[in-house]
Amino acid sequence: MSLVIYNTLSKTKEKFTPLNENEVKMYVCGPTVYDYLHIGNFRGAIFFNLVRNWLEENGYKVTYVYNYTDVDDKIIKRANDEGVESGEISERYIKEFEADYNRLGLKKHSHNPRVTEHMDDIIDIVERLVERGVGYVIDGEVFYSIDRFDTYGKLSGKKLDDLEAGQRVEVDQRKKNPMDFVLWKPAKEGEPAWDSPWGKGRPGWHIECSAMIRNLLGESIDIHGGGIDLIFPHHENEIAQGEGCCDHKYCNYWMHNNFINLKDQKMSKSLGNVITARSFMDKYHPEILKFVMLSAHYRTMLNVNEEKIEQTVSGLARVYKALRDAQTFIATTAVEKEGNVFKPLAQTFTSAEAKIKKALNDDFNTGEMMANIFEVVRVFNSQNVLKKLKDPNALASAKAFMEWVQKYGEISALFQEPASEFLKELDGILLKEKNIDAAEVDKLVSERLSARENKDWAKSDEIRDKLAAMGIEVHDSGDGSHWEVKK
Predict the structure, then answer these.
(1) CATH class of the region 4-257
(2) Does 113 score more than 80 pLDDT?
(3) Please, where are the H alpha helices in 14-85?
(4) Cross-strand partners of 32
(5) Which of 97, 283, 285, 419 falls 20 to 30 Å from 120 in CA-CA distance?
(6) pTM, full prediction
(7) Measured between alpha carbons, how far is 56 from 63 in angstroms, rounded to an integer?
(8) Which residues of 425-458 are buried (b: 16+ CB within 10 A; e: fewer)?
């Protein structure tokens, strides 16, 4: 099955055909760097990392550009509030974003351009728009004339008459059309500014991405991504600029990820329910954030609540326990030469691989991918390799299972943690969430072990039941009793 992508422009799924064979030019709108990013901001970063990885898995050479907006009103306001230069604010939060991004183990982008590095490109494209009569200058301010772009509104589906009728703010009377937007704005006191043919000033927001795309990827690109909040006006205006400047189709495939709700409410500062990716990862784990984001299709609304996190912890534990068993088997088996993968597991590898390929080729259905990974885990667990330490086929199966999970782990940026250590980290998270005292658990497990040694089975069972009520599972083996939080 060929890759198909839901294109926001056509409102349908379309077969993916790149501009140049075996090459993909991809641009995703990155952060405005004035604060820590919240978990919703990272949905796109995590999802489009998978998009890039899947394209590369299918043989494409991907040039992936992810920008930093380092000139913006919010940056300027924060700088003024703190009494520092705006460049200090943007530099600080670029570093903070990159620290969070690296903590997630996501692949480095091909380019991370900053607006301030592309002022000449921005001025050049604005000049071209003015020369072509699409842009016009009033008092050192440059506007885009949307009446000169016949297909304005084609991405969002908005009609000009409706937009004009919906105006609720006082309109700049200098504009030819109330919906004309700014390409270049004159300098204000206390704000960063650059020399231009229209006097000192700085760019409008929309022109920045168009200029960086044109400089780094060319006049036409394959994929442009971002959150659905960017469809209008940002991406709509990007199209108008890119095509108004160059007479080429600006982008062939537009992809937009949906919002995140936190406990059934849209995250907003007014509600006080915004949670940064940093604080989420500190409380839980980067692996949990990635799994949550990829557990649902990118175009669906995702609700993050306690139940979702519990399901995520349970799912991750299932995969990592199986990986731990495979690693334990490989480390302890006496078999030197491996045999053949158990037939049911080999068959499941083949069927799951085909289903995952079909799912990801059908507009990146990551939820279906996860379901098939769990099916492989289920079948591997059913083989009970730890009870077959002398079986060469079990060795082959354990190695093949680890390689198989590793493959899809690299595509999704999941399942790369050391299994035993990660499971202990999950225990630590759950102990805090459930307010369980680890020292008390150790004491009870020790008392139960003594009862077993004294053949006091009634007391042993009583303590086990007490631990179970706390959400603690006890596993008895030849080298003693071990406990973990139920997941």
Answers:
(1) alpha beta
(2) yes
(3) 41-57, 73-82
(4) 69
(5) 97
(6) 0.95
(7) 10
(8) bbbebbbebeebeeeebeebbeebbebbeeeeee
